[in-house]
Amino acid sequence: MIDSEILPTIDAPRVALRWLTDADASSLFSIFSDPEVMRYWSSPPLADIEGARGLLADIHEYFRQQTLFQWGIARRTDDMVIGTCTLFHIDLSNRRAELGYALGRDHWKNGYMQEALGAILGFSFDILNMHRIEADVDPRNISSVKTLERLGFQREGYLRERWLVGGEIQDALFYGLLRREWQSSRLA
Ligand SMILES: CC(C)(COP(=O)(O)OP(=O)(O)OC[C@H]1O[C@@H](n2cnc3c(N)ncnc32)[C@H](O)[C@@H]1OP(=O)(O)O)[C@@H](O)C(=O)NCCC(=O)NCCS
Q1: Domain, as residue range, for 175
Q2: Any residues with CB less than 8 A from the CB of 164 and at least 6 apart, and which?
């Protein structure tokens, strides 16, 4: 599906979506060890830098298997990774994938994720030829809900008690964005 050794870089106005390397382990650790960032994530916060190295190894392995694509969101000014965007549950026969995303807390409320996800959606529909992109979000995760709805995602379902994370049962809101909706929102 992606015929190269690493993920292609995708440009957005203030950030670039790029391949993550070993040099990004400490940035990944600072993002994914923060309990506030991980509050509604599907796994607990990273405990140590080894956890970040393990995460990187998984990202590279899943890319090799072409089952999950996780880009670093790098600030254009200094190339520092401030978050990640992921396409996972990639299903080529049905031309769909699920979207995941996280930003370091210091970078919230600047519109960086909106830019990054806009670029990933363009890549998903135009280059990967996806028909549908999905997202699963905790109903209490208001910032994430707003981010999806700003991008045109439609609320499609409410799944009760879908997750059990750190001993807490969590509900899920399911969102979807169709190719034609994305294309018409770009023309508007
Ligand atoms: C979900 C998450 C990425 C949203 O971050 P965010 O910074 O609120 O999202 P965006 O980048 O889309 O920024 C939009 C906000 O920036 C504001 N903003 C400020 N400057 C802006 C600019 N130049 N352009 C656009 N928006 C701007 C917007 O008004 C908006 O604020 P609002 O939501 O209060 O209206 C973040 O909360 C996060 O990483 N959470 C933890 C991980 C997580 O839960 N991931 C989702 C799992 S489903």
Answers
A1: 10-187
A2: 170
**Tens digits of per-residue pLDDT, 44-102?**
999 999 999 999 999 999 999 999 999 999 999 999 999 999 999 999 999 999 999 99
Specify the ligand 1 atom closest to the Cα of 150. 12
| 152 HSE (CA, 13 A, CB side) | 18
Tokens representing 11?
Answer: 């440009």
Q: Which of 27, 42, 108 to mutate for ligand 1's pocket (most ligand atoms within 8 Å of CB)? A: 108
Evaluate: CB of 102 within 6 angstroms of ligand 1. Answer: yes
Contact 153, 179 (CB under 8 A): no
| CATH number of 24's domain | 3.40.630.30
